[in-house]
TrEMBL record:
<dbReference type="Pfam" id="PF05139">
    <property type="entry name" value="Erythro_esteras"/>
</dbReference>
<protein>
    <submittedName>
        <fullName>Erythromycin esterase family protein</fullName>
    </submittedName>
</protein>
<dbReference type="InterPro" id="IPR007815">
    <property type="entry name" value="Emycin_Estase"/>
</dbReference>
<dbReference type="InterPro" id="IPR014622">
    <property type="entry name" value="UCP036794_erythomycin"/>
</dbReference>
<dbReference type="InterPro" id="IPR052036">
    <property type="entry name" value="Hydrolase/PRTase-associated"/>
</dbReference>
């Protein structure tokens, strides 16, 4: 790791990086939505725009991603938003924003039904506001040009089974029996998150693999006969693919390796590619995921662990079509998270960033609320320096974040741009506990 020093005295010897001057010369102040014009200009004709977040529970990350997405949709003709969420849940929101029959009365109603932990990731007022904007925008679009909203993740095994069985009950009763057979294979291990199935595969390594592959194959063969909305057909195929890859994910989860992570991120890219194909040759996609997924893994220590991620794979596959990634981060503030997996959500303080981390250095430079462009100047001057870059997950313990919440990163190679916010606030969930409608008194309606 290359060491560096910040130049604070203009009389210091050459060779010491003047990080303050470097950042200020290659960034702009983020004041309001008009400040995003230069970012959108630099995105240019890219077909893939990846928008990150340093946590899954920060208000400002959701709001700024939504604002960037609105401009890209309105001015650059983007086709859909694909997020780090479950396919069945997000597809219901997709139906609502496209005003499909019986798709719900309000975005709040649809999003409140997102009851699998961590609910706050999408069941929040920030997403409600963006979904209502999408629905209004789609009012003036023709059927084939309405903006979509989809989930890329692999976790929805049981929900995808439910969606498939319900669909096949009406369209393909014979294949429905194959779906029920596959479901019954998993049923003894229905603990919600796949751990029981993972443990069972120690004894029988391919426990339900054949059943789910057979289901996917039959759906693909018979899909041409379903004679229904093409998007509904695409959705049932995607649910079958989720089940196949979820089975692989849970089977790999029991091993102490990077394979389960890689299966998940490869599945998300597979889903993204399917969405691009479905939306046609002129399609453009906006991806919302955590920085650890959209920032190129090759610029981090993830590569030493044999891990790949969405940012790396999309760059490798689609560089010629244009890929632009934007990371997010802040120095301090508040966040929604849980102290244990499956625990209740709560507002937590995000402490001041660790010394010499990326966020710490930006704070020291008084780079408050800036868009930093990772151009050739930054690559030349600090491209070989690994900064600790904060990453907060759905499970967070602020007192111990120095033990594992910083990813060593060559920042100019991890993103094309970085949005730095000096202080951020907590997201505004629709409910505190799954299946309980409860809004804290301290949460305002407005976002």
């Amino acid at each position: 790791m290359k060491s560096f020093h910040i130049k604070s005295d203009p009389n210091q010897k050459d060779g010491i990086i003047d990080l303050s001057k470097l950042i200020l010369e290659n960034s702009i102040e983020l004041k309001n939505e008009n400040s995003l014009n230069e970012l959108v200009e630099k995105i240019g004709d890219a077909k893939y725009v990846l928008l990150g977040e340093a946590s899954h529970g920060t208000h400002e990350y959701y709001v700024w991603r939504a604002q960037i997405s609105k401009i890209l949709i309105a001015k650059k003709g983007f086709s859909f938003i694909a997020v780090e969420g479950d396919w069945p849940d997000c597809y219901r929101l997709n139906r609502y924003i496209k005003k499909y029959p019986n798709s719900g009365e309000t975005a709040e109603e649809v999003l409140h039904a997102f009851n699998r932990w961590p609910t706050w990731m999408w069941a929040n007022w920030e997403t409600v506001a963006f979904a209502e904007w999408l629905r209004e925008y789609n009012e003036k679009e023709t059927k084939n040009h309405k903006i979509g909203f989809y989930g890329l993740d692999v976790y929805s095994l049981w929900e995808s089974f439910e969606s498939i069985i319900d669909y096949l009950d009406k369209k393909d009763p014979n294949t429905k029996q194959t779906a029920i057979k596959a479901f019954k294979c998993f049923e003894p291990y229905n603990d919600g998150e796949g751990q029981e199935y993972a443990r069972a595969t120690r004894m029988i390594p391919s426990l339900c693999e054949n059943e789910v592959v057979e289901l996917l194959s039959k759906i693909r063969v018979n899909a041409v006969n379903y004679n229904t909305d093409p998007e509904a057909v695409m959705s049932v195929e995607q649910n079958a693919q989720v089940i196949v890859n979820a089975e692989k994910y849970y089977r790999a989860m029991i091993k102490a390796s990077a394979e389960s992570w890689n299966i998940r991120d490869r599945h998300m890219v597979y889903t993204l590619n399917n969405l691009m194909k479905f939306h046609g040759p002129k399609a453009k996609g906006i991806i919302w995921e955590h920085n650890t997924h959209i920032g190129d893994a090759r610029a981090t220590d993830m590569v030493a662990q044999g891990m790949v991620n969405v940012g790396q794979i999309v760059n490798q596959q689609h560089e010629d079509e244009g890929v632009y990634s934007v990371g997010f981060g802040s120095y301090q503030g508040a966040v929604i998270a849980s102290r244990e997996w499956g625990d209740v959500m709560q507002i937590m303080k995000v402490p001041e960033a660790e010394k010499h981390s990326w966020e710490y250095e930006l704070h020291r430079l008084y780079a408050k609320d800036r868009i930093i462009f990772m151009n050739q100047n930054l690559k030349k001057e600090i491209g070989n320096i690994k900064f600790g870059h904060r990453a907060i997950g759905v499970v967070y313990r602020p007192k111990y974040e120095y033990l594992g919440n910083y990813v060593p990163s060559k920042m100019p190679y991890r993103y094309n741009a970085f949005i730095y916010l000096d202080e951020t606030s907590a997201l505004h969930p629709l409910h505190i506990n799954p299946d309980i409608r409860q809004l804290p008194e301290t949460y305002p309606f407005g976002v």
